[in-house]
Amino acid sequence: MNQVSQRTNNDRTYWIETMCRIADPVLQALSEKQLKIRMPIEAKLFDRDQYSHLEAFGRLICGIAPWLETGPTVGEEGKLREKYAQLVRECIDAATDPNSPDFMNFTYGHQPIVDAAFLAHAIVRAPKELWEKLDVRVRDNLVKALKSTRKQKPFFSNWLLFSAMIETALFLMNEEDWDRMRIDYALKQHDQWYKGDGMYGDGPEFRMDYYNSFVIQPMIVDIIELIGHKESDWQEMKERVINRAKRLGIIQERSISPEGTFPVFGRSLAYRFGAFQHLAQMALQGKLDESLEPAQIRCALTAVIKRIIEMPGTFNDDGWLQIGLCGHQPELGENYISTGSLYLCATVFLPLGLPADAAFWQGNADWTSKRAWSGETIPIDYADKIK
């Protein structure tokens, strides 16, 4: 095996090992219905234990879902993938069964709208493994849990997309009462909130943070892809939605420094490399701008993952994530942040849904800032003109 192939394969192995290291404490505990006993709750506010368990589970599987859905079915990785798919199905049962000691909060407070949406997004990303293979009893419980979030009204911000994603999953589940209005409202408001150059406002105001990647763009793209055909005005949005998404992908790739760091600004930095969910999704779906090579995205994201995950203090002694961006930095946890929140970092692993022979995993290529700061020729960047 030549050096390039060895490096490429090592990247995929490293991604899988890191993903499993993050996932294991959550999935092992929840599958045994002991998540509420075992998971520590690091937070500034005393009430986060009401929400942190659903946060951890929904956000985690939102990231690993494509690997569960389209990962290999043979070989060592295939066996590992099947093991985790079964484990996640057991966890869905434990989380949604009212008689389970780990039955999660889908109704109290506003926060469950958020994390039920990440759970719903996981179903949308892996319908065969995480919906079709569920027992009828578990399906019924899951549907009831998702619908129970309708009791609360989302805030006038990116939260509109959480309600829309839940309804999109209910559409996928063939629930006749899926709500077009929640989806329509979210899509059209965000279309109005578009600020230009690949960036949506989080509500009427623009915020310079990573929420276009944490939530907004990935959910808009997946909602439009799955359900856009159901209404002509949604379908009419699709081209500009994808063009905006491509532009943000360019910006995200250019924001990764030669050392695998990225600008430290905005809310929720404790989500760590979840800041690159959007770039990861563009790579997974083959929607990268033509100026970007899939391999350069892999190399850039690998640098980010290594820069963050290998910092001492990222995990506690029992393997649970701790609040911080680079190590344990509890001061970076906003009042809404708790241990469960941190598992949004798993969304960087979306490209593991690509087969090992995909272009993403082949060869090596430096990313834009690494080339620029090495004195190499790079293309000029131009602002997007899509309205």
UniProtKB/TrEMBL annotation:
Domain of life: Bacteria
Pfam families (UniProt xref): DUF2264 (PF10022)
InterPro entries reported in the protein's UniProt record: DUF2264_N, UCP014753
Domain (DUF2264): residue spans on this chain: 11-364
Protein name per UniProt: DUF2264 domain-containing protein
